[in-house]
Amino acid sequence: MVIIIFGRRIITSFFVLLLIAIQLSAQEKTSSDYLQGRADGERDAKGNPLWIAAGCLPPYGNLAAYLIKPNPPAHALLGKSASYIQGYTEGYKSKSAGKNVHVFLSGYGMYNGCGDCSHYTGIKGIQRVL
After folding, report:
1. Which residues make Cβ contacts (< 8 Å) with residue 86, sequence separation at least 6?
2. Each residue's pLDDT tens digit, 35-61
């Protein structure tokens, strides 16, 4: 009887440790997939050149460029794990929003540059076109 109880405890302990090891392995893989996805998303992110036009709308264009976050391309997510997709999406959106703000600022600089040129050269009407 003592041997059976001792044997059951060993088997139970073995299975508990096995389940813990499996869970830790799954968590490590999930976080690894997430981090890899985030790095890939940040690498693939790019700014949309149409945000240059938003440079003509100074306060609103800047807010829109920062707040509107583009969706990642679907082909980059096919066949990937859920944690990879989550990491890729978060990395892509955060990096793309920053790059869109930089593109907006380029447009804003061009808008202000044209306005300054018209002021110094005496050319009229450039600000109305922009």
Report:
1. 34, 37
2. 999 999 999 988 888 888 887 777 777
SS3 130: coil
Torsion of the alpha carbons at 42, 43, 48 and 49, rounded to the nearest 10: 140
What is d(CA 115, CA 2) in angstroms, rounded to the nearest whole number?
A: 93
Angle of helix 58-67 relative to helix 82-121, nearest 10 degrees, comes to 170
Q: Please indicate, yes or no, whether the overall pTM of this predicted structure exceeds 0.85.
A: no
Q: Angle, to 10 degrees, between the axis of helix 2-44 and the axis of helix 82-121? A: 20
- Look up tokens 């930089």; give the residue: 102
Ordered DSSP codes for 27-95: HHHHHHHHHHHHHHHHHH----GGGGGGGGSHHHHHHHHHH--PPPPGGGTTT--HHHHHHHHHHHHHH
From the number of C-beta atoms within 10 Å of its C-beta (0-12, 13-18, 19+), residue 121 rates as exposed
**What is the number of residues in the chain?**
130
List the chain domain ranges: 2-129
